[in-house]
Amino acid sequence: MARMTMIEAVRSAMDVSMARNDDVVVFGEDVGYFGGVFRCTQGLQAKYGKTRCFDTPINESGILGAAIGMAAYGLKPCVEIQFADYMYPAYDQITQEAARIRYRSNGDFTCPIVVRMPTGGGIFGGQTHSQSPEALFTHVCGLKVIVPSNPYDAKGLLISAIEDPDPVIFLEPKRLYNGPFDGHHEKPVTPWSKHEQGEVPEGYYTIPIGKADIRRQGSAVTVVAYGTMVHVALAATEETGIDAEVIDLRSLAPIDLATIVQSVQKTGRCVVVHEATLTSGFGGEVAALVQEHCFYHLEAPVVRVAGWDTPYPHAQEWDYFPGPARVGRALAEVMEG
Amino acid sequence: MGDFAPLSLHVPEPAVRPGGAPDFSNVKIPKAGSVPRPIVDVAPEEIRDLAYSIIRVLNRDGEAVGPWAGVLTDEEILTGLRDMMRLRAFDARMLMAQRQGKTSFYMQHLGEEAVSCAFRKALDKGDMNFPTYRQAGLLIADGYPMVEMMNQIFSNEADPLRGRQLPIMYSSKEHGFFTISGNLATQYVQAVGWAMASAIKSDGKIAAAWIGDGSTAESDFHSALVFASTYKAPVILNIVNNQWAISTFQGIARGGSGTFAARGLGFGIPALRVDGNDYLAVYAVAKWAAERARRNLGPTVIEYVTYRVGAHSTSDDPSAYRPKTESESWPLGDPVLRLKKHLIIRGVWSEERHAQAEAEILDEVIQAQKEAEGHGTLHAGGRPSVRDIFEGVYAEMPAHIRRQRQKAGY
Ligand SMILES: Cc1ncc(C[n+]2csc(CCOP(=O)(O)OP(=O)(O)O)c2C)c(N)n1
């Protein structure tokens, strides 16, 4: 065991995977020599050589197009998009190509790629370094979508993603890269080294894709969250004193419906929290599933807490970011319902 | 404002529109045999002229002349002629089948048969094409069964793609034919990635990317050139310039660059133009580029100068945007007739044998069609199961798709 930040855990996952399988290749803008702007790939080029970890031109559709071709050849590309905000030039390659190659060729060709991208706000990134585009991917059939909330999960899930036979979108909440976060930006962040989930095995292990994690048992209300919002939900639970059950989805596609349903049938109440804008966000999907599967157990309408339906602001990001206070108010609201 | 006249937008126009007299005076055609054949490891900057000329082997008299001639045997050329004739007969039957309502859609190759048929012969088993919808010749020339192609076109119960793809969007890994995307240009860069993978693995296999003249305007075309030149990928970057992108003439995508091949020059990639209606020239140039790729010398851009004689697809009416007789004035002739003439003066073919071959091929196509129709057509007979809708989205079916399949009753 070692103490790792999420950055180190992500790097370790690639390292372990590259060591186990010569076909795993890692590339993207600045990921080779420099090790990526967040240093997630630091040291990989020195260790595995320039043909296994390399820099690319600043051309996202090129990165994805090349990855798809490599996967068709038989390699396992794990590519980095520098910020999720810059995946849009590659969106066509991801959603129209990678996602459908298996289906349209009836399995003749497959596309086992991983697309890593830092997501989310809380780092004063402004409009173009803060977006959470997960719903743009969960809507697309053929993709798997993962959002880890801690180093331990990040490593186990990323290894699973690299081994997965299908294309996986791996969204890394950059607010969590260095430590957990309870939504109080004025408080210093406790580093992962002081957190139990910063304890990460150095070697190989996996966490299955499609399994949620119950981060706190509770009986009064179910909070469904993922990524940074898991920490915010836990903080809100503590601050309000409401006995909430907090579910960390980990995989959005496929989603662990059974865990959500079991929990909501027990608690009878549900709050969904995410950072992305509210309208047509992934929370709508969760709320619909809860409605379909738990209607007769519900004692209050499902409430969603999300970013506002505006572009991500720079100076006011702490008013945009759903913090423990907003989640707390939502908890109180469903408890009254 | 001072000395300047007001600005005006330049919108390129073809030389003539319907009703006018076809005019190809702008297509400068060098004499067959006049363009030099450089050594394969030539420095790209030494052959910039080749991006503006047209490599030709077959002259007007049907002789094979010049430095690019003489690379194929009688037997190989005869096979090439038969491949092109097969593709043409196949097209004619499938076009008819579409008109008879046996399928929804078809795209033909009329006039462009030499490009894909000859190119396939320059590749080896294990190489990979990333084709567009107008390279079925790659499959025909590789011996892929016509029945399978028809099963796909009819979306019948024997369709290898289970009715999921638009007709003619074939896929065959075994025959080096990557699954076709309907989104133009996306696959150009995928081909480069495949080639990069082959280089990473120190393999001997090469890739071929395909695109039409109109689609070179897509950003993925430019992404592909960036990646191919950066990593010197073992890939052949093919551009089929058939003059038209649906109703849009080639000048719209090309702008003022002179030729499509010239796009490669800024990337330091050797770029050649070839007579796309000359089977021997296409083969020789493709072979040259393949050798460069295999010798680790990197990518080559090839522009095939040709003409789309047929409609863009069965949904298109070309007489609405170009003179009806334009195809007859195409100065580079018909690829089948040109190769036929060459074989006749070579002394290994005759009008009689040609007519006989035509009859045999028609018979072969009709037999294949009967067999395929035995499995059903789009609106009649056997169809892939509705169950197939739900299979193969992922390697393993996730619970939500299983629930939906059950809801659909399967
Ligand atoms: C991204 C995208 N945009 C538009 C289309 C519609 N479309 C299909 S074929 C075509 C023309 C392509 O022309 P060209 O590249 O010259 O190829 P050709 O048909 O002449 O062989 C267009 C616009 C498409 N399939 N994909």
From TrEMBL, chain A:
Q: What broad class of enzyme is this? A: oxidoreductase
> Any coiled-coil ranges, and where?
none
| Enzyme Commission number | 1.2.4.4
Recall the GO molecular function terms of this protein's record.
Answer: branched-chain 2-oxo acid dehydrogenase activity
SMART domains, sorted: Transket_pyr (SM00861)
UniProt keywords (A-Z) are: Oxidoreductase
Name the source's superkingdom: Bacteria
Q: Which organism is it from?
A: Pararhizobium capsulatum DSM 1112
SUPFAM superfamilies assigned: Thiamin diphosphate-binding fold (THDP-binding), TK C-terminal domain-like
The positions making up the signal sequence are none
- Transketolase-like pyrimidine-binding domain location: 4-179
Pfam families xref list? Transket_pyr, Transketolase_C
Which named protein is this? 3-methyl-2-oxobutanoate dehydrogenase (2-methylpropanoyl-transferring)
Q: Which cofactor does it need?
A: thiamine diphosphate
InterPro entries associated with the record: THDP-binding (IPR029061), Transketo_C/PFOR_II (IPR009014), Transketolase-like_Pyr-bd (IPR005475), Transketolase_C (IPR033248)
UniProtKB/TrEMBL annotation, chain B:
Reactions catalysed, semicolon-separated, are:
N(6)-[(R)-lipoyl]-L-lysyl-[protein] + 3-methyl-2-oxobutanoate + H(+) = N(6)-[(R)-S(8)-2-methylpropanoyldihydrolipoyl]-L-lysyl-[protein] + CO2
Record keywords, A-Z: Oxidoreductase, Thiamine pyrophosphate, Transferase
Q: Where is the Dehydrogenase E1 component domain?
A: 84-379
Q: Which GO terms describe its molecular function?
A: branched-chain 2-oxo acid dehydrogenase activity; transferase activity
Q: What EC number(s) does the entry state? A: 1.2.4.4
Q: Which domain of life is it from?
A: Bacteria
**What Pfam families does its record include?**
E1_dh (PF00676), OxoDH_E1alpha_N (PF12573)
The enzyme's main class, written as a single word, is oxidoreductase
Which cofactor names does the annotation list? thiamine diphosphate
Residue ranges of every copy of the 2-oxoisovalerate dehydrogenase E1 alpha subunit N-terminal domain listed in the record: 6-45
Q: What does this protein do?
A: The branched-chain alpha-keto dehydrogenase complex catalyzes the overall conversion of alpha-keto acids to acyl-CoA and CO(2). It contains multiple copies of three enzymatic components: branched-chain alpha-keto acid decarboxylase (E1), lipoamide acyltransferase (E2) and lipoamide dehydrogenase (E3).
As for family, the record states: Belongs to the BCKDHA family.
Name of protein: 2-oxoisovalerate dehydrogenase subunit alpha
